[in-house]
Design brief:
single chain; 436 residues; alpha+beta; Alpha-Beta Plaits; Chitinase A, domain 3; Trigger factor, domain 2; 3 domains; five-stranded antiparallel beta sheet; four-stranded antiparallel beta sheet; 13 strands; 45% helix
Length: 436
């Protein structure tokens, strides 16, 4: 088979496909005959429906199916013959003026680009490191203590202060009118923990049980409730109860309550250090990997297929709608989400994916079974039953594909770091852990 490939643009190509009409009609008749053996129609016994009746009812849909199948087969054969790496789905259109006995189609499509990666020794990458500090362990202990705190009601004349739990009734109005979400009874919140706007917390601080107060509150312009964002409201608050927090002592009993085997504070701190170091490792790998990928893309020269970008945009928009649905947004699947919001990120993802794939192919950086196992064990280590977590991953092909992709990225990162100009920088534990 001789295939003529026409170049329309950098990555866009066109192939003309010719199909014999006889072969199409023969396949249509064969499928209609097979269908006639099993089709059920009123007034006829199964398998006894006349062919002309079957053809009248199903002829168009069978013709459409056969045409699709034949064109698909012809396109795949032509692309293979021309040794083309097709990106996305071809756009097929029937061509006029075909020779007698033939039907012709134009297939317009994109191919994957040639990826040129410059000498990686010219790439400059900053690699960060960090350590778990005693202060970080102290803060984690405090978080664990807060999670297990108890509350006791303060005396009637005690004023609300930082760390207390307040039970209140409140009602807010804007220009004298109530608004959605602006009223509640027996509402509890912890003062000083950012559960309420700072102005609200400051107004309640110093109040006593039984007291009421009216105060103004300005909603930030970027407040999540769009109907009140940037507006000023007047709130009436009545304090019903003030409770003081009691944090358990960080002692042997506390360690025991957390399931520490030998119930010692030293063992608790060792366990916290181990967990923090595991999390720190993942953060360091992620941040350094991002630096590597940015440097790698900067060293690469390629065009990106529009079809691949569009497919990525479709996935991102669907992901955004799924997120809105999970948040309880009504009719989330119909939400108007402009594609252009995601276009720069989609183009970056496609570009990076093509560059990484080329590096993996050229230098055999595929994930090895032992690497996948090691990564799975690390993922599962922070759970109570690691074996069950490993089985959960291994029971699903898609989850395992995600694990394999991470391992491949790690291989690429190590490969690039071994060749690039790397400068090491130590960063504070809090700085690294505080970054998304």
């Amino acid at each position: 088979m001789t295939v003529t490939v026409e170049t329309l643009d950098k990555l866009e190509r066109k192939i003309t496909l010719s199909l014999p009409v006889d072969s199409i009609q023969t396949e249509v008749q064969n499928r209609l005959k097979r269908l006639a053996r099993t089709v059920k129609m009123d007034g006829f016994r199964p398998g006894k429906v006349p062919m002309n009746v079957v053809a009248q009812r199903y002829g168009y849909s069978v013709q459409y199916e056969v045409m699709n199948d034949k064109v698909g087969e012809a396109f795949n054969a032509a692309a293979n013959e021309a040794q083309l790496r097709v990106a996305g789905q071809p756009r097929i259109s029937e061509k006029e003026g075909a020779p007698e006995g033939q039907v012709q189609f134009d297939a317009v499509f994109e191919v994957y680009p040639e990826v040129k990666i410059a000498d990686l020794s010219a790439a400059r990458i900053e690699r960060v490191s960090a350590e778990v500090t005693p202060e970080a362990i102290d803060r984690t202990v405090e978080i664990l203590r807060k999670q297990r705190r108890s509350f006791a009601q303060r005396a009637q004349d005690a004023a609300a202060q930082e760390g207390d739990r307040a039970t209140i009734d409140f009602e807010g109005k804007i220009d004298g009118e109530p608004f959605a979400g602006g009223k509640a009874e027996d509402f509890q919140f912890l003062i000083g923990e950012g559960q309420m706007l700072k102005e609200f917390e400051e107004a309640v601080k110093g109040m006593k049980a039984g007291e009421s107060k009216t105060f103004p509150l300005s909603f930030p312009a970027d407040y999540h409730g769009q109907e009140v964002a940037g507006k000023q409201a007047d709130f009436l608050v009545t304090v019903k109860k003030i409770e003081a927090a009691h944090l358990p002592e960080a002692n042997e009993a506390f360690a025991c309550s957390l399931g520490i085997a030998d119930a010692s504070v030293e063992a608790l701190r060792a366990d916290i250090r181990k967990n923090l170091e595991r999390e720190l490792k993942f953060r360091l790998v992620a941040r350094n990997k991002t630096a590597v990928m940015d440097a790698l893309v900067a060293q690469a020269e390629l065009d990106i297929p529009k079809s691949s970008v569009q497919a990525e945009l479709d996935r991102m928009v669907e992901g955004a709608r799924a997120d809105l649905k999970q948040r309880g947004v009504k009719d989330a699947e119909k939400a108007p989400i402009p594609e252009d919001l995601f276009r720069p990120q989609a183009e970056k993802r496609v570009r990076l994916g093509l560059v990484v794939a080329e590096l993996v192919r050229a230098h055999s950086l595929q994930a090895r079974p032992e690497q996948i196992k090691t990564h799975l064990d690390e993922l599962a280590a922070s759970y109570e039953k690691p074996d069950e977590v490993v089985r959960w991953y291994m029971s699903d092909r898609r989850r395992m594909a995600e694990v394999e992709a991470v391992v491949i990225e790690n291989n690429v990162a190590e490969f690039v770091l071994s060749r690039a100009q790397v400068s090491d920088k130590a960063v504070a534990f809090d700085e690294l852990m505080g970054q998304a």
